[in-house]
Every structure is written in structure tokens, then in C-alpha cells.
Fold these 2 entries.
Entry 1:
Amino acid sequence: MLTVASVPHRTTPRSTTLLWQWPLTPDEYKALVDCKYQTAPTGWALIDSSGTVKAWHWLDLGDPRWGDLDGALRAFLPDTKHRQWRIRCGWTVTSDDGELLNVFLSQAKSARSARAPETGSDDASL
């Protein structure tokens, strides 16, 4: 008889990093808004097969995760099998000059608004 205790514990692989994707924390949202108002916000956008911007992170030439396209792809999708599967499903990482950052922030704000129950007060953090 097979019981739960007899099955080796398997950690669920992470298909996407928990940072820089919506729902964003207030600190992540603020960091991205700050980046948006730089003179030239450049970064990486993770886009799914339907064209939705799923994650965004600024270009950081000193960081191997965010300094080039391949590093950003690995940072957004750290699990190799899930990364390969997402690529086969049409997900891409592309460089961005700020346009996709605006789209991502709008999506993040909309997602938060859709989740938040009506409380009668506006959340100024988003």
C-alpha cells in the first residue's frame, strides 16, 4: 500500500521568479515607478504567448542575471525544464526602452485593483 509518508518529498519547481512579476509588492511597484521616471528606463520584459507582459526588470550591466538577454531569461524562469517549456509555448524575453514597463505597471495596477475588495479608501501605494 502506498501512503503519503512513503512517497519521497518533491519540491515544486519554480517556473518563474517570485520577484518582479505581478502581483507586485508595494516596494517592487515603487522601484519600477522610480525606474520609469529615469531619463531612459531600459530593461527586460518577460512576455507570454498572448503578448501579456508577465514580468519586467531593469537592465543591470553589473549583474549576470540582468546584464544580458540570456541572463534575464534565466532569472525570470530559473527552472530549466519550465524555461524550455515556456519558450516552446511562445514566451519570450525582450529588451525594452520603457514602453513595456508602462504596460506592465498598468497591468500590475489593474491586477491589484481586481483583487482588492472595496474598502472605501484608496491605496496610495499603487
Entry 2:
Amino acid sequence: MQTLYSTPYLHIYLHQTTHPTLELHWLDFVPSADFRLAMEELMRLARQYSAQALIADNRLLRALRQADLQWSGDLVFRGLSELGGRRFAAVESLDAMNRMGVTALVANVIPNTNLASQFFPTIEQARAWALAPL
């Protein structure tokens, strides 16, 4: 696992297994502007490394604005799908508001993409599923 991006809010890692996979490890609350910059960087990295899967460790991520969630769903899920991405694995946030927002977003956006998605109780389980051969 290689660190590609690091801020006080987020680390982005690259897994090079049978297919390139990016992993987001959220560390805390992130202001709207920083969230959007991080998502744009994620998509730059997804294009650079031809990412086929995305893992989001949302355990420490707190509530996001609905507008930011919707924007990120369009950018990330549709963008990853257009790049040929196949999987999205997430570990749910400990924050109930974030959990509800992300769950609703995934339910609304993922069906309109080529991504399979699944939520997991641990990062190890999320990694195992996302990194398994396609």
C-alpha cells in the first residue's frame, strides 16, 4: 500500500494487486472546500493509475453538507465508472448523519453506474472484497 496523498483530513493510498485500487482513509471532519479539493485529487489519481476499485474508510468522517455529497457522487462514482471502475467498498462512518447521507447517496447514484458496491463493518473486510480478482 503506497501513500499518494495526505492532508490533516484524509490519506489516499494505492493498492497494486490484480487491479489498481485507491483507498480513502478519512481522519476527521473536513470543511467543504477541502472535501471538494480532495475529491478532485482522488479523481486525478484514479485517472493516473487507471483505478478499477475504490475503498472508503469513513469511520472517522463526520457529517457532510448534502450539496457536497451529491457533487461527490456525481464526480466520483460516475467518474470512476466511466474510467472502467468496477467496485466501491465502504466502511461506514461512526457519525449517524454521515452514515445516512452516504447510504442514500450510494443507493441513488451507484445503480446508474457500472460499479458494484458494498458496505462492511471493518476495513479488512472492505479491502478483501475490493482487492479480490475482478
